## 1
Amino acid sequence: MKKLFRFILVFMLLGIIGIGVYRYLMRANDPMNGQKADYQVLAHEWVEEFKINEQAANQKYLGRIVEVKGVVREVLRDSLGGMNVILESGDSFMGVNCSMESGEVAPQEDSDTIMLRGEFTALSLDVCMARCVRISLPK
Amino acid sequence: MSFSAFVLLSTTCVLAQSKYMTRNGLVRFEAEGPIKDDIKAVNNQAGCILDASTGDILFKIPIKSFVFKKALMQEHFNENYMESHKFPTAELKGKIEGFKPAVLQKSGVQQVMVSGKMTLHGVTRDIREPGTMEVKDGKILLRADFGVALADYGISIPKMVEDKLAKVAQVNLSIDLAPTGQ
């Protein structure tokens, strides 16, 4: 009886560990909504920072969670249903390119001032952020 | 390419009529080994500029913008394989071979060959890959599927995951280029 009890206990323990490991291995990215930002920036100032010193800006922001405030210049869609919001930067070419999380509602082009939270990924044609969500503007 | 050189190219592109570009090109990546583990990712932030008077083409892809279903896989991809903290972008600078502006007047899908230099994980190599080009509704649609041998770019695969990870990753490009600004 004692042996059986021990067997069941070990079996349950292994099961719990197994479920824990499985959930850890299979976990999706943490939702951006619940994350705390490392930096808060204005789109035009942020792009300027990259123009002044790309290397230093990359080092400072790469992989960090950033909240960026700016006016929507353009909303782009791709063939897989993805949405990118481009924020105005004052530069005729470069902007802040935010790849939005699925399920995010498209903002209005040219007029909306919004704040987005996402992970800075690199300077490409734009300053790029991934997994972005729209957050409320601070009062 | 340094930022200043890139801006110079970009500005030139905006000023010229013959340039086409995208900020949200799609790059799909798959590197499944014999043991299937869903090693796939999508990136919708590939930047691309095409000079439609010469066929010169530039791609710039932020590595950290690749999104995997599993967070752990994404972490390994960035930290252990691509080392995106050291090499945040991949770049392809090249030419559509035999490109002439007149090809943009042709309808239908055309076979093209892109050759140039690809920089990935800090390693630059010559590449030459086939693809297709189609002019539709004023846009140039570029499509390509090609393999990237990880070892060629100094990306080593640990013994432990040898069966899960393919030695040659399959890359799919889907780029819709629109005329710049004008």
## 2
Amino acid sequence: MTALLEIKGLHAEIAGGRKIIQGLDLTVNKGEIHAIMGPNGAGKSTLSYVLAGKPGYEITAGEVYLNGEDLLAMSADERAAKGVFLAFQYPLEIPGVATLTFLRAAFNAQRKARGEEELSSPDLIKRVREIAKTLNIDADMLKRPLNVGFSGGEKKRNETLQMALLQPSLCVLDETDSGLDIDALKVVANGVNALRSAERGMIVITHYQRLLDYIVPDIVHVFAAGRIVRTGGADLARELEATGYAQYQSEAA
Amino acid sequence: MGVAIRKTKAELGLADLYQGARRYLPGGEEITAVRAAAFDRFNVVGLPHRRVEAWRYTDLRTQMKEAKRLASLPDDAAKAKAREARDLFAGAGFRKLVIVDGAFVPELSDLAGLEPGLTIQPMADALAADKPLLSQRLGAIVPDDDPALALNTALAANGVVILVAPGTALSRPIHVAFVTTNWVATSMFTRSLVNIGAGASATIVESHQGPDGSEYQVNTAMQLIVGDEARIDHIKVVSEGSSALHIGSLLANIGARATFNQLGFVAGGSLVRNQLFVRLAGEGTVADIRGGALLSGTQHADTTLSIEHAAENGQSRETFKAVVGDTARAVFQGKITVAPGAQKTDAKMMSRALLLSDEAEADSKPELEIFADDVQCGHGTTTGAIDDELLFYLMARGIPPAEAKALLIQAFIGEIIEGAANEAVRDALTGAMLGWLGRRE
């Protein structure tokens, strides 16, 4: 069976030459949730950007396949249409674009790219409202410009809403817990857990173990100095909470 | 001694136009005298060039190679073309007045069932009647030492006069459509006057259009005289043909406790100069002045605003945005003057440019001239490219780059369009914007 995501020997650097990812191997199968934990500066966010197709990174070696297709050959929008979703650590504010307009544009662009029929506005609005309700997002927020003036919690709930609407096959959650209080964290985690399915894989990137109390991973990786230095089960996260990352940083260096 | 400068071909051509036309331009003795004085003012200084501060970024002397002959009165073929011309406001239910090749055409205009208090007259008729009021106003609202405006005063042959009696609330907007039909390049000088009586309200939309590829020349001026406690919404859309020269002047004098909403939108023409001379003459008046420009190719669009707070407690907001692609150039010059005694003035001006290519250019020159001591005035300017982070965010959600850019451009210019109180106007401007975006793809 083809893996959902297969990363082989990946090396990436920021345009300009700083090496960030240095020999990463990772396989995510459908139905699995992988946590990637590591110290700040280990390259966790870079990994999320490289998977999503953000310009400004140079892949110097390695391969990445999504359902057997060469992910690195695709632009960011093509990757999204193929099912890659990056939940941003810092979702961007776009004045002048209503949240609902954005959701409609994204949803229908992906459908179009896949050769599927676009959804009519009333149907889409109905669907968005249903998801919004489960995330405690009120209808008024959907009319506001995208993320403008949203609190940290509102932004992360909005990311979760987009993920639920777009139904990606691979979710990459970049520090989803940052900026969230415990109540907001629970709402977001519930939203993410609702998306757990045998057809979907997730990579949860986090510095702290706290998030993983709510989104319980199948596999935990320790990521340091640009590669995975240890892999274990959910209990590895708790162990890290106790021991910290210092040993891995010295190991990697 | 400025007179030592040799006249350009265009300046000589303009002098010929005036000499040839002055005998039959409408107007009696008084108006003829006003015209002659205006032409002399022009003739002394000639076409403005970059050493004239108000025209610093738009060197008309260099750019205007010649003066096209004056347009002849529209024949049946021209009228037929005008009838079929695209109308951004079609279906909006506006009262449409049509100016074809510079001439008011009653049979194309909706003059039936004028609301009580509304008077509409061709400017040519009003000039011919030589009423003292009109001759005083032909140049007198604001100093018309501007050479382009002086030329307009000298040569304006037609246009429209709209009078709204005091206390009249016109619910139906009036659309004055200026349509150039002739592919053979000509020049047109039009002058219009809108007088909104005290306590009255009206929405006036101006549109300017013509054939692509024709190097026609438009010099148009609109005078707005707005009484105390009146409200005017004035929208001007320039969608001239791709090779057209458009010089437009708005002269506005606004009374006390009035509301003045002005929106200019440029999505056409080769060289466009929109100049606004606004005087908030009475106290407590609120003005919202916005401008949007969508430029591509080699277009050059200059908006030059001069607003004077002449009385106390006035509030004004000036917001200008330009989207500039290819090798186009957007210019914004904005000057806020606060007269002595205009205390408690609250004025804020902002201009922003979004550059879509490395060769695109935006020039912005804000100025404040304040002679009162208890005021709040400010201005700001930004120029930048499309934000790569925003673009990536949209693309990461599956929106293709062209569509994502279009969405960001729409969001940028949307703030200007939202300034229109009338929904049909917003729809029309959104349509114009989408049309522009569509042509870029």
